[in-house]
Amino acid sequence: MAIFLIRHGKKEPGKWFNPALRHQDPPLSTEGLEETNRLAEYFEGTALSAIITSQYLRTQQTARALGEKRRMPPIIDPRINELDNGDLDDMPEAEFAKRYPDIWNSYTARTADFRFPGGETGDEARTRISTFLEEQKDRYRGENIVVIAHDGIIRVGMTYLLGVPVFHRGDFTVHTLGITEIEYQDDVRRWKLIRFNERLT
To answer: Do residues 10 and 76 make contact, with C-beta atoms less than 8 angstroms apart?
Structure first.
């Protein structure tokens, strides 16, 4: 099977707090909405069995054009929500460094995992995404699916797939609408990275 991990499109700037998620939940910008049509075109001719998104508005909007074209309503799964950074949500980096210097040092040094104040650890996020990926591998064996998620959780997923410590997630860059393709190899029972962060052309 192949899983296409895709970061959502460009989001609208500003304050868009969603109390149900306890985080900012901005919609896609006008440019981001226009780009979603290109995503639908990109998968023209590719057989897909499911489209899965996080609970955030921007991932669901990113999936809309593709889902409508395929007549395939997206499945929402909270395990691929963005990292829960708790009290740091929408906090400027300078304030983050000043208020939580120990956590900031761990965040920038990339030598140890840490818990976001009021949020989760990298390992907790890794458990979410790894459990999700393993479940999809078994559910859609031999099929292709599209998963539209977020920068942070995709980077955490890469540490799981490549077997590197979760605090190295900052070593990866994921562009908006960047496409990462992974494939599960039944013969060796391992994931294979086919391509990473490919930009739409």
So the answer is: no
28, 10 Cβ separation under 8 angstroms? yes
Check residue 28 and report its DSSP letter: B
pLDDT at position 201: 62
**DSSP string covering 96-150:** HHHH-HHHHHHHHH-SS--BPTTS-BHHHHHHHHHHHHHHHHHHTTT-EEEEEE-
Contact 51, 70 (CB under 8 A): yes
Domains delineated in the chain: 2-84+120-198 (3.40.50.1240)
Compute the distance between CA of residue 100 and CA of residue 105 in angstroms, rounded to an integer: 9
- 121: part of which helix (H) or strand (E)? none
Residues of the chain with pLDDT under 50: none
Report how far Cα 15 is from the mean position of its chain's Cα atoms: 21
DSSP β-bridge partners for residue 6: 148, 179
Which residue type, as a one-letter code, is found at position 6?
I
Token pair of 141 as six digits = 């064996």
**Tell me, what's the pLDDT at 119?**
96
Only one residue has tokens 């955490």, namely 156
